[in-house]
UniProtKB/TrEMBL annotation:
Disulfide bonds join 457-491. Pfam families: ShK (PF01549), Tyrosinase (PF00264). Keywords: Disulfide bond, Metal-binding. InterPro entries: Di-copper_centre_dom_sf, ShKT_dom, Tyrosinase/Hemocyanin, Tyrosinase_Cu-bd. Residues 457-491, 501-536 form the ShKT domain. This is Putative tyrosinase-like protein tyr-1. It comes from Toxocara canis (Canine roundworm). One of its GO terms (molecular function) is oxidoreductase activity. The keyword Transmembrane does not apply.
Length: 556
């Protein structure tokens, strides 16, 4: 017997060594179990409703056009377990859940801000800002019945863009009524570094997550001139909207011409919404520039929330999708007519913004924060319950702010109300808010985002490359820009054009399973999903016409 054999002989193993080995194995198994992914259970209130056959957005060539979570799943590199989309990290892709800004957890708020910063750095924030600028006037997005439907679609697209960066993110809403109770709403905790940031003496936003953000109009910081015009909402403002019964007073003719037979309702949502644009001022003041300021999105989420409350209070599910004001040219720009194109989303019309699928499939709202005499808290360190009269939640005031009238209440954040001012207390503050995620977490989100970058540059016809070689990009430019953008280099494609067999779109497998290789999507699939549709051995250009006259005929 060799020395080595002798050393490993079972007869010579020290019993204490055996015990130690078993103990270490148990600890390793326990650690592996602790590190295993614990899948979040999707709560009932975030379970999507049933989808009606033929509803739009179940299949989309761009994630922004999706109207179901299942449609979004491939764009998040997810897979299906039953009907649930599961992300690569093992967690479910759920509907977005829009909470009041100040009720977000520290992690939720910092994730939202981190996603907004990444969105800005990618250039997509500014692209969507310009999209809003393009409909700032002379469109169906403002000054008429299309206002609420258009902004619902716009917010949905922004939220999808943010979730492609971080799937846990939703756009919070800003319930500005809670700020209007304060002696000076400008000193609300909302306008402090943990939230929307503070301004210098010239109105430039210089602290917080959006400090010194360059804007699309060339400024090096967002501009806010708060409190000089307009006003915040009150409970009466909300009650007035909720008290309306006619759809014409909600989707209102806000820019009628002389001779319009419909009376003006100054309490319509679009009218009262504009008061806060004026109150924030600066970039927010005018529609063309308002989306430069990130506060635009939580504010419009609140406007959308109020519209949804009205819909659920006054309309049946069927009526919500059908009722739209009459098309009256003396009362509105024709671009607000119910079947007018929802520019710049030319695959949609204005009344598409009435769909129940937005809140049945894509997002839900948390209730407004509330409190009572029995439970005098608002569920957030940034809110307090004013129990005088009818208990209600109020935004806390930032340190050194004016708190006159709130002495004796927990009105000051990390400070106490003395002599009408929020001053440091005798004891250190209970916690200091974190203003960004840990570096390792930011890096992990960035890596995941990089794997989900979607480049919307495709051809929509299998003949595009042949037509491009024939010079049709120049001869039939309008048609080719719409249907053959990749072949004409109008955009920079992310796929390898020399490999005709490879699937070029992330949704090809799902679309094949849904039967999309035939039917209305056949040409798109023949070009971009050849592997999934089993077309690799079929010549691509066999049936392609060669002359521009054919293209002109198609356009006509």
């Amino acid at each position: 017997m060799s020395a080595c054999q002798h050393l490993v002989s079972p007869r010579r193993i020290n019993p204490s060594f055996h015990t130690l080995r078993v103990s270490l194995q148990r600890r390793a198994r326990a650690q592996n179990s602790a590190n295993a992914i614990t899948r979040i259970q999707v709560p009932d209130f975030l379970q999507p409703g049933p989808v009606m056959p033929g509803s739009r957005g179940q299949v989309a060539s761009h994630p922004y056009d999706c109207m179901t979570i299942n449609c979004l799943c491939p764009y998040f590199q997810g897979h299906f377990e039953g009907t649930q989309c599961v992300l690569p990290n093992g967690q479910p892709l759920t509907m977005a859940f829009r909470k009041e800004y100040r009720t977000l957890s520290e992690e939720e708020r910092n994730r939202y801000h981190n996603a907004m910063r990444s969105f800005k750095l990618s250039g997509e924030y500014d692209r969507l800002c310009n999209e809003h600028l393009s409909v700032g006037s002379g469109s169906g997005a403002h000054s008429g019945p299309g206002f609420l439907p258009w902004h619902r679609e716009f917010l949905k697209r922004v939220e999808i863009g943010l979730r492609l960066i971080d799937p846990t993110v939703s756009i919070p809403y800003w319930d500005n009524i809670m700020d209007n109770y304060l002696p000076d709403p400008r000193q609300s905790i909302l306008f402090s570094p943990p939230f929307e940031g503070e301004t210098d003496d010239f109105g430039n936003v210089v602290t917080g997550p959006y400090a010194f953000w360059p804007t699309v109009d060339g400024r090096q910081a967002i501009l806010r001139i708060m409190g000089m015009e307009g006003s915040l909402w009150t409970e009466s403002t909300l009650a007035s909207i909720m008290g309306q019964s006619a759809i014409e007073n909600i989707l209102h003719y806000t820019a009628p011409l002389i001779g319009c037979p419909m009376p003006v309702n100054l309490g319509a949502p679009e009218f009262v919404h504009s008061f806060i644009h004026l109150w924030v001022g600066g970039h927010m003041r005018d529609p063309p520039t308002s989306a430069n300021d990130p506060i635009f999105y939580p504010y419009h989420a609140f406007v959308d929330f109020v519209w949804e409350l009205w819909r659920q209070t006054h309309q049946t599910p069927q009526a919500r999708e059908l009722e739209y004001p009459m098309d009256i040219a003396l009362c509105e720009d024709p671009q607000h007519f119910s079947y007018a194109p929802m520019r710049p989303y030319f695959n949609l019309v204005n009344r598409d913004g009435l769909s129940n699928m937005y809140t049945d499939q894509m997002y839900r709202y948390a209730p407004r924060p509330g409190c009572s005499t029995q439970v005098p808290t608002c569920g957030s360190p940034y809110l307090f319950c004013d129990t005088r009269g009818v208990p209600h939640c109020v935004s806390k005031i930032k340190p050194n702010g004016i708190c006159m009238g709130f002495e004796g209440l927990d009105a000051c954040f990390n400070s106490v109300c003395q002599g009408g001012r929020c001053v440091p207390g005798a004891t250190p503050p209970p916690f200091v808010p974190r203003t960004q995620l840990p570096a390792a977490q930011r890096a992990q989100i960035s890596r995941s985002q990089a794997s989900r970058i979607f480049v919307a540059c495709f051809n929509r016809n299998p003949c595009c490359e042949l037509w491009a070689r024939d010079g049709e990009c120049r001869i039939s430019g309008d048609y080719m820009r719409q249907f053959c953008a990749a072949a004409c280099n109008f955009c920079r494609a992310a796929f390898n054009a020399t490999n005709e067999c490879a699937d070029r779109h992330v949704s090809c497998e799902q679309w094949r399973s849904d039967g999309q290789c035939r039917g209305n999507s056949e040409q798109f699939m023949q070009e971009n999903c050849r592997s999934s549709c089993g077309l690799c051995n079929t010549p691509k250009f066999t049936a392609c016409p060669r002359r521009s006259t054919v293209l002109i005929k198609v356009v006509e």
